[in-house]
Amino acid sequence: MTKAHFTWDDLQFFLAVARSGQLSTAARKLRTSHATVSRRIDRLEFTLKVKLFERNPRGYVLTPIGQRFVETAEKVEQETERLEAELAGQGPAQQGVVRISAPEGFSNFFLAARFGELSARYPNLALELVTIQQIMALSRKEADLAVVLDPPKAGPYHVEKLTDYALQIYASQSYLDRRGTPESREELLNHQFIGYIQDMIFAPGLDYLGDIHPRIQPSLQSSSIFAQLTATRNGLGVCVLPFFIARQYPELQPVLSDVKLDRHYWLVCHQDLVQSSRIRAIIGFLRDIVAKDQSQFLSNGVDEPRAKGRGRHTTVSSG
């Protein structure tokens, strides 16, 4: 009887489905058809005589044996990348697709503008940027890498701080001309406030208003920081915004300059992936661009005389 074997090509199909949980997503990554991916997974399971996935209406879910097989397949992947690089006489290979999950504000107002730098540095790397308002499950490989406000407290993850960032209350000059400038936290209660929908806040780090004043009731709420910014620029109220976003719009004025909030962005990936050359490349890139523009995250970019609030400097920090 001829012994059945599987190839590295088979493992690529397996890893693509394991990381996405969807045949269609895996097919796009591998530039092939949905049917081909399904056929290759079936063939691999037949060859190994084990069930690697449970099929259900939501997609493909790894079985316990499949979970263990991921670890082996990823080690083969890393060694294959290293060998390809050595044979080409180059440094570690940086190629493939990396899916990164990041908050809407960081993605739209910082990272997306730097895609050109990424392409220039790593022309063979493709980035999939996910900004939906939910926590992507790194444990199920829904994303390869995540930028988060609140890192996991346990689990098989590599976690490192990317940067601190500061926030302040802002309003448009037109709003302040019309409604006046609040001179204290108590006076904020007399103003229109813009904020997140309380029961849709997906990360504790976005729960700002209690830190400003426990009795603030926003008159306009949105799950989107972009919608909040747009409303603030159009004079609909005051809003807590990160420095790196608000500093891009000169019509926005800081309110109560003594009230500043501190938050943090963290990088998180599964320990199984941290040694992958493509993941290390993206982590290094993110470190570099944040360090290069560190002042954007920590300074509002305006002269203090423009801030019309009074009082001692107060910093509210979130652990």
TrEMBL record:
One GO process term, biological-process aspect: DNA-templated transcription
Matching InterPro entries: LysR-type_TF_proteobact-type, LysR_HTH_N, LysR_subst-bd, WH-like_DNA-bd_sf, WH_DNA-bd_sf
Entry GO MF terms: DNA-binding transcription factor activity; sequence-specific DNA binding
Signal peptide start and end residues: none
Domain HTH lysR-type: start-end pairs: 6-63
Domain of life: Bacteria
Keywords, ordered alphabetically: DNA-binding, Transcription, Transcription regulation
Transmembrane residue ranges: none
Family indicated by similarity: Belongs to the LysR transcriptional regulatory family.
Function, in words: Transcriptional regulator of the ttuABCDE tartrate utilization operon.
Name used for this protein in its record: HTH-type transcriptional regulator TtuA
Annotated source species: Rhizobium rhizoryzae
